[in-house]
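in:
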């Protein structure tokens, strides 16, 4: 409150009665008044439902129990700010439903070819083979190009989809859209020229930090008692720790991951992340001010 009172002294022309009322306001009341003039940007859903391919891709069995790594949920996020016109960056999120291991990639657009190339980059990074992929009904996933990519291989990937407008069907990817995308890059509009820098941040700093060092809790059970729902979660573990318990991941792959973890330092990752984010938001601000982004 002392800082706020000092700020009032810079406006001696204020009506004394008004000044007295402002100084009596609590912090919560001030916040409530400031919200009226504050512009809040929220994420926009730009999913275009694929009508034809909905009948080619089956619905996801939400009651299925996952016991092996490789059952992936995927989704896209639009970095458009509050304006969907023109070109902007998209983020692709792919998370393993058993371990929570998550990889992200930035796309310059949401065309099927861009999504396929991003999925190929993610697959080459994952420490396990994809067995199935669960997506929403968006046209970026439900198309011939993606069907051929996943199904025309020696071990075809099973494709499934969630119900339209039912976010809980694809909850594993939806929650990572916030923790792994929005908490890093926010809700600002991002121009395509920054996609390469975003991928560097995702690949070299943000994803290793999340997968190796930040623990997560997973839902074990959910019971309803009248109007209340009681949820039970397991003990927090990192995706790396959960992956070491996966029965279908080879010991050789687990050993490679252990060696990689020993080569990483969470403090160095955090420092590098902050440095890259400072550069990113500096370039983003230059683009907003009308300067050309390098």
């Amino acid at each position: 409150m002392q800082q706020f009172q000092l700020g009032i002294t810079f406006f001696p022309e204020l009506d004394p009665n008004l000044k007295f009322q402002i100084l009596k306001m609590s912090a919560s009341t001030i916040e409530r008044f400031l919200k009226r003039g504050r512009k809040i940007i929220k994420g926009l859903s730009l999913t275009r439902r694929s009508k034809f391919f909905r009948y080619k891709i089956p619905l996801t069995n939400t009651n299925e129990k996952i016991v092996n790594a490789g059952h992936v949920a995927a989704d896209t996020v639009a970095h458009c700010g509050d304006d969907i016109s023109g070109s902007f960056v998209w983020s692709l999120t792919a998370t393993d439903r058993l371990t929570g291991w998550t990889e992200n990639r930035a796309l310059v657009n949401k065309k099927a070819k861009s999504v396929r190339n991003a999925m190929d980059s993610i697959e080459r990074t994952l420490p396990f083979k994809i067995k199935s992929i669960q997506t929403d009904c968006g046209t970026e996933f439900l198309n011939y190009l993606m069907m051929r990519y996943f199904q025309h291989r020696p071990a075809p990937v099973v494709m499934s989809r969630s119900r339209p407008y039912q976010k809980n069907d694809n909850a594993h990817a939806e929650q990572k859209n916030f923790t792994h995308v929005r908490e890093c890059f926010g809700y600002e509009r991002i121009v395509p020229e920054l996609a390469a820098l975003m991928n560097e941040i995702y690949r070299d700093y943000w994803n290793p930090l999340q997968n190796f060092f930040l623990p997560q809790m997973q839902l074990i059970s959910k019971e309803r008692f009248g109007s209340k729902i009681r949820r039970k979660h397991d003990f927090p573990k990192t995706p790396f720790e959960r992956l070491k318990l996966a029965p279908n991941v080879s010991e050789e792959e687990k050993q490679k991951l252990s060696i990689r973890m020993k080569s990483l330092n969470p403090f160095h990752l955090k420092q590098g992340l902050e440095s890259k984010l400072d550069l990113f938001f500096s370039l983003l601000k230059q683009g907003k001010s009308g300067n050309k982004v390098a």
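note: The longest helix spans residues 266-288.
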